[in-house]
Amino acid sequence: MDIKKIILSTIVSSILTVSSITAVQATYNSSEGQVVSDETVTVYSSRKEHLIKPLFEAFTKDTGIKVEYLTGKGGALIERLKLEGDNTQADMFMTVDAGNLWYAGSQDLFQSVQTETIKSNIPAHLRDPKGLWTGLSVRARTIVYSTDRVKEQDLSTYANLATDQWKDRLCLRTSKKVYSKSLVASMIYNQGEDKTGDIISGWVNNLSATPNAKDSHVMNSILAGQCDVGIVNTYYFGRLIAKNPHSPLKLFWANQDTTGVHVNVSGAGVTKHASNKEGAVQLLEWLSSAKAQVIYGSLNKEYPANQKVASDDVVSAWGSFKQDEMNLSQAGLLQARAVRLMQIKGYR
Known about the structure:
Blueprint: H1 3-15, E1 22-24, E2 40-45, H2 49-63, E3 66-71, H3 74-84, E4 92-96, H4 98-106, H5 116-121, E5 134-146, E6 170-171, H6 178-191, H7 193-206, H8 215-223, E7 229-233, H9 234-243, E8 249-252, E9 262-270, H10 277-287, H11 290-300, E10 303-304, H12 313-316, H13 329-333, H14 335-344
Parallel strand pairs: 2-3, 2-4, 6-7
Antiparallel strand pairs: 1-3, 4-9, 5-7, 5-8, 5-9, 5-10
Helix pairs in contact: 1-3, 2-11, 6-7, 6-14
């Protein structure tokens, strides 16, 4: 191994949040009619343990197949997969945001999986067209506003937040985060680069403060009176409301008369060098099933990617909305243009 790879390997190892693979064991008795198996699927995941362990435990209970998993930062796990090559232990890689899934696919880390089960369970716009990855839970990135200072009828589109009405009233998350990049990529896809550039310029002019590091900070700024409106992922709103159910905040579904609200996914793909491809495909199909989708929704207040499954009661209370049905691979394909445009327009 050359010195560059040694250095990169050291950096990746230091970034990962755990140093060993955790196993979800199958300890079920065949005499009780439950499947017992020595088979194991290994997953690298940028999703935190508390959001994946219940899913893997349910899968093991249903199938008898053990799941071993390693959690860490998405970028570090991708670099690890690249370094490991065909020596990797990983059969599956799970991460958040279609932009990240697309990047992993662009690095030749996935293999195509296009089973009839996945096609039936997950809509085409939430899956890679070549079958490299599939969305497994959905989050909308939409407008959040103060119910004390904003009338719902004054809200309409992402573009409307660029108008003079919202001067010094807008809070945003930093453009450095992938969720912001994917939203702007979808706007470029739907409206073109020139129109999107105008919208970003208007947003920047309307900011009441420097962009925030987190969506939770955007909502806290609204609650503190620093701004009146913002753009956040819906599950962040769900977390805040769970802690403070009487907070004077509400979601507004953007672009309902045009493209629909921007949605994104957490998802997964089977790795190119999976040693247990069959088990990984079985896990991917199971994760798209109704049973798994209910668990997904309850864990993080996300929407099911399988649209035959009802949302969690808390999530359902926010109301229904029209989704933007842009294929989410575009969030990756247009990401570089989105980043460049935000830099040009001064969105930091």
